[in-house]
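Dear U.,

Please find below the material for section 3 of the report. The protein was modelled together with zinc ion; I have listed the sequence and SMILES used, followed by the predicted complex structure.
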Amino acid sequence: MALGRCLTSHAWPKGKKTDYVGYVRPAGYPDSALICGIPDCNREAVIWLDTGEVESYEKGNRIFKGPSHFTKMKANGEGVFK
Ligand SMILES: [Zn+2]
């Protein structure tokens, strides 16, 4: 499950069951609609991916789910930052 977190204060998030191994930039970054999910943080977010999601990205997938069905996130094509 992907997460949206900023690079400034909340980089390399640690999930209870998920190891985030890299991030991708959302479509339109840095002027995208994706904002860090931490309460009281309104910085631009990147999309943090686990191992399976990185593999999926590298096969061409650009759409990632978060922990709820509220919305999904679309990555750009710049590649994975590790
Ligand atoms: Zn943040």
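For the text of the report, you could mention the following: Residues 51-58 form the longest helix (8 residues).

Regards,
Y.
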